[in-house]
Amino acid sequence: MKRGLKLAIALFIMVSCVIFAAALAGGLMDDSAFTTAAQQQGH
Known about the structure:
The protein is mainly α. It is built from two helices and no strands. It has helices at residues 2-26, 32-40. The longest helix is centred in the N-terminal third of the chain and has 25 residues, at 2-26.
């Protein structure tokens, strides 16, 4: 039971890292994504 829980946590962490890396590579966290909203508010 504990082994399965550790495996599930490890898989969850690995998937989260892959998604984060894909988001960075895809430019989802690029500054240009936030500039339009900031310009509309006048900042």
